[in-house]
Amino acid sequence: HDKETADTIGEIGAGGVPSPRLGYFLRPDQWGKGYASEAIRAALGHAFDTLGWGAIDADCFDDNPASIHTLQKAGFVRIGAAECNSQAREEDSPTSLFRLNRADWT
């Protein structure tokens, strides 16, 4: 939440069976402030240390280099590619698929 207004600045969540997935978004006016990295670290700590998950997947559109960098900085490794539907874009878009194994998380 925005500390001054208490407005939501984004969301993060993870879940799913058999392969848990991480998803997140931030309002554009909050990009570049480190909030995504901070939230991802907290979510990964909970997923691995509290829930005991062995791995977690994530994906992002190929035309979002900032998100790709954020996932890689958190330790995610690109494992493939796909065309994923985007409701906001109303079309399929090239997407990179990522995974982070618990053993590789620091």
Describe this structure in words.
By secondary structure, the chain is α+β, with helices and mostly antiparallel strands. Helices cover 24% and strands 38% of the residues. It is built from two helices and five strands. Strands 1-2-3-5-4 form a five-stranded mixed β-sheet, with helices on one face. β2, α1 and β3 form a beta-alpha-beta unit. The mean pLDDT is 91.
What structural class do helix, strand and pairing data support?
alpha+beta
Query: Level of helix content?
Result: 10-25%
User: How many DSSP H or I helices?
Assistant: 2
Q: Identify the overall geometry.
A: globular
* Beta-strand proportion: 35-45%
How would you describe this structure in keywords?
106 residues; alpha+beta; 5-stranded mixed β-sheet; 2 helices; 38% strand; globular
Task: Lay out the secondary structure.
Elements: E1 10-15, E2 21-26, H1 35-50, E3 55-61, H2 65-73, E4 77-86, E5 91-101
Parallel strand pairs: 2-3
Antiparallel strand pairs: 1-2, 3-5, 4-5
Q: What is this structure, in a nutshell?
A:
With 106 residues, the protein is α+β, with helices and mostly antiparallel strands. 24% of the residues lie in helices and 38% in strands. The chain starts with 9 loop residues before the first strand and ends in a 5-residue tail after the last strand.
